[in-house]
Specification:
This protein is mostly helical. It has one domain. Helix content is 77%, strand content 0%. It contains 7 helices and no strands. The chain has helices spanning 5-19, 33-38, 41-59, 68-92, 99-124, 129-155, 159-181. Helix 4 runs antiparallel to helix 7 (159-181). It is globular and about 45 Å long.
């Protein structure tokens, strides 16, 4: 049930289209049960980049003092909690039929997102702390907009509902991070 390299490329290209708010990106995803399960391969693909980003943030930027083991545990916990939160949100919005497409799109988009974060973190090592902080803030806001595009497009929902999905997912993610790491 591991996706092929060709499939992974197709899914990431679809996620890239969503980054541009292009609804055609959804057509790239496999939204069957098999595709849903395969989309969690994105967690494994993104993990080494996540670990690298965490290392750079901790060692070179002094941004996060969480030990690597706890950071990886929080990463895994967030991947587990995300679909549980999403299914609840889908039910509240009466969009249950869009739950799988949303999770599949968001999972593959995580690869695009961690790539953007890695580039920003690497660039921030070359900047003053003030500019580095500003860069990370701008990238974070941009990625929240990307999450909004995904929620709005995948759930076929108006803007306010897409914004609510992003806000709730953000808050749940922060809660999980705090519960696992104590930070």
């Amino acid at each position: 049930m591991i996706p092929t390299l060709d499939d992974i490329v197709r899914f990431v290209v679809g996620a890239g289209l969503l980054l541009k708010n292009d609804e055609r990106g959804m057509a790239a995803f496999d939204v069957s049960l098999k595709g849903f399960l395969q989309s969690f391969a994105a967690a494994v693909i993104a993990l080494p980049v996540f670990a690298f980003v965490h290392f750079v943030q901790t060692r070179h930027l002094g941004m996060d003092g969480t030990p690597m083991g706890l950071a990886v545990l929080a990463y895994a916990a967030q991947w587990l909690v995300f679909p549980l939160t999403a299914v609840g949100l889908a039910k509240v919005m009466h969009r249950e039929q869009h739950f799988v497409p949303y999770v599949v799109a968001a999972n593959w988009a995580a690869i695009v997102q961690i790539g953007i974060v890695a580039a920003a973190v690497l660039l921030s090592t070359l900047l003053s702390s003030g500019l580095a902080g500003l860069l990370i803030l701008v990238v974070t806001l941009g990625l929240l907009v990307y999450d909004f595009f995904i929620a709005r497009i995948a759930f076929h929902t108006p803007g306010i509902d897409g914004g609510a999905v992003v806000l709730i997912q953000l808050l749940v993610g922060m809660l999980v991070q705090h519960l696992v790491t104590g930070m």
